[in-house]
Design goal:
There is one protein chain. This protein is an alpha+beta fold. The protein folds into two domains: 245 residues, NADH Oxidase (3-Layer(aba) Sandwich); 160 residues, no CATH class. It contains 13 helices and 17 strands. Strands 5, 6, 7, 8, 12, 16 and 17 form a seven-stranded antiparallel sheet that branches. The chain has a three-stranded mixed sheet with strand order 10-9-11. The chain has a three-stranded antiparallel sheet with strand order 13-14-15, with helices on one face.
Length: 431
C-alpha cells in the first residue's frame, strides 16, 4: 500500500462513536455510477464510479479481521497455547480458519489467513500506533486474479433483487470463507475424550458417535465402546455433530461483515451485507478445488484454494490421520513431550509462570487421538469426502462497500437517510 494515511482522517474514523455506528448503520445500496432500471426508485447516477482507495480498503480489513491483541484464554483449564492472536472477530479456531477474500476493479485478493500476529495486550492502543493496524492489508494481501471476480449476473448464483447492485464497478466486495473441517476434527476430539474437559464428563466416558444416515451404526467407534473409552448409551448422531461444527464456525464470517459494516459508518461510505447467494459458482470463479465423492450420492465438496486456504482433509493431507495430527498436536502433553516448550517464546498475556500454565492446560490422551482418527477415517471412507454431508468450506455472506451517491438519497428519502460522514466523505477523502 503506497498511499499515505492522513492522520486526521484516520483519527476521525477510529474515534467515531460506537453507538452512533450501531444506530446509524443502514443498508445503503446505491453507489456512484449505479443505476436502478425499474420500480418506484428508478434512477441512474449522474456520476462515474469511484473505487475505494487502498486506505479505505485497509481500514475495512483492519475492522473485519485485524489483530487486536493477545487472547487471554481465561478459563479454569486453558487451552495449551502460551499465547494466541486475538482478532477483531470472535473465533473458536484462533482466528485462523476464516479467510477474507475480496474483489475490486483491479483484481481478486485474499488476506493471508496464516500470516500476521500480535505481541501486545492491545494493538493500536495509542493514537500513534493506529496506522500499524493497516499493516495486515499492506503486507499480507495476496493477489489471486488481475481483474474483478466474474460472478455471473443472474439468479442464481445471485439473488434476483441484488442483480443491479452487487459486485458493480467501483465497489469492493468482501467474501469471508470459513473452514468447517478443522472445527469438526476438534469437536470430535472434545466429544470423545473426557481429558479435554469439554463435552465429555470429566469423570466419565466419551460420547458414542453413530451414523444416523446408516441405521445409527457406530461411526468407527466400535473398538472404543468395547474398551470402555466411550459410553455406549451416550449417543451423538453424526449429522448433529457435523451441524455443530458449522455452528462453531458460521458466526465468524457474519461478525467480520458486521465489523466492516460498522466501519463504513465511521468512514462515510455505503454498502450492505447480503446473503442472497449460492456459493458453488462463486467458489468456481475463485478457482477452489472441488472433490467429487466416489462412494455415495452427494455434491462435490469445496475443500479450498491450493496453496492459499486448504481444508484439513486429503488431498491437502496424505491421510485423515495426518490431518488429525495437525489439528491435535498442540494438545498433546506427556512427561517427555510437553505441549508447550518451556523456553521463552515472546510475550504472554498471563502473570503465572509458564510451568503453571502448562500444567494447568488441558491435554488430549493417546486414546482420544486414536478415537478421533477412527471417526474421521470412518467419515472419509464412508462418504468419500470430509466432512461427510456438509461442505468443508462455506461462503454465506458478502459485504460490499462503495461510495454513496447522495443525490439518489436526497431525491427519494427523508433527511437522515445518510449521516454527516457520508455527506462529507468525497470532499474529505477524495478532494
Amino acid at each position: 500500500m503506497s498511499e499515505p494515511v492522513p492522520s486526521d482522517l484516520l483519527r476521525q474514523a477510529w474515534e467515531y462513536p460506537l453507538f452512533d455506528a450501531i444506530y446509524g448503520r443502514r443498508s445503503r445500496r446505491f453507489g456512484l455510477g449505479f443505476a436502478m432500471a425499474e420500480g418506484p426508485y428508478k434512477y441512474k447516477s449522474r456520476h462515474a464510479p469511484v473505487p475505494l482507495s487502498e486506505v479505505e480498503e485497509a481500514l475495512l480489513v483492519a475492522a473485519g479481521v485485524g489483530f487486536s491483541g493477545m487472547a487471554l484464554w481465561d478459563q479454569s483449564r486453558p487451552m495449551p497455547y502460551r499465547s494466541a492472536d486475538g482478532r477483531t472477530f470472535p473465533s473458536t479456531s484462533r482466528g485462523r480458519r476464516t479467510a477474507l477474500f475480496f474483489t475490486n476493479d483491479q483484481g481478486v485478493y485474499v488476506i493471508d489467513p496464516s500470516a500476521g500476529s500480535t505481541s501486545k495486550m492491545r494493538e493500536a492502543g495509542r493514537p500513534a500506533e493506529r496506522n500499524q493496524a493497516l499493516d495486515l492489508y499492506r503486507h499480507h494481501r495476496q493477489v489471486l486474479q488481475n481483474r474483478r471476480l466474474e460472478i455471473p449476473r443472474r439468479a442464481p448464483p445471485l439473488c434476483g433483487h441484488n442483480l443491479w447492485d452487487s459486485n458493480m464497478p467501483g465497489s469492493t466486495l468482501f467474501m469471508p470463507v470459513c473452514d468447517v473441517s478443522y472445527s469438526l476434527i476438534s469437536l470430535i476430539a472434545q466429544f470423545v475424550d473426557a481429558r479435554l474437559e469439554r463435552f465429555a464428563a470429566t469423570v466419565g466416558r466419551g460420547m458414542h458417535i453413530v451414523d444416523d444416515r446408516f441405521d445409527f451404526r457406530p461411526a468407527g467407534t466400535d473398538q472404543w465402546v468395547k474398551s470402555g473409552f466411550l459410553d455406549r448409551d451416550n449417543v451423538l448422531p453424526l449429522s448433529h455433530l457435523e451441524r455443530q461444527a458449522c455452528y462453531f464456525m458460521f458466526s465468524e464470517p457474519a461478525a467480520i461483515c458486521q465489523n466492516m459494516f460498522l466501519a463504513t459508518e465511521a468512514i462515510g461510505i455505503g454498502g450492505w451485507m447480503h446473503c442472497g447467494i449460492l456459493s458453488r459458482e462463486i467458489f468456481a470463479a475463485l478457482d477452489f478445488r472441488m472433490i467429487e465423492p466416489n462412494r455415495v450420492s452427494a455434491l462435490a465438496n469445496p475443500i479450498g484454494l491450493d496453496g492459499v486456504f486448504e481444508a484439513y482433509c486429503p488431498p491437502y493431507f496424505p491421510s485423515m490421520d495426518a490431518a488429525v495430527d495437525a489439528v491435535l498436536t498442540p494438545m498433546v502433553r506427556t512427561a517427555s513431550a510437553p505441549a508447550e516448550p518451556m523456553e521463552p517464546q515472546g510475550p504472554v498475556p498471563y502473570l503465572i509462570s509458564d510451568a503453571e500454565h502448562r500444567d494447568g492446560a488441558v491435554a488430549i490422551s493417546e486414546e482420544g487421538i486414536a478415537c478421533t482418527k477412527a471417526v474421521c477415517n470412518y467419515i472419509h471412507d464412508t462418504y468419500g469426502r470430509f466432512p461427510g454431508n456438509i461442505d468443508a468450506m462455506h461462503l454465506m455472506w458478502f459485504m460490499q462497500a462503495h461510495h454513496l451517491d447522495t443525490d439518489y438519497y436526497d431525491r427519494f428519502f427523508r433527511p437522515g437517510a445518510y449521516g454527516a460522514t457520508h455527506a462529507a466523505h468525497m470532499a474529505k477523502w477524495h478532494p
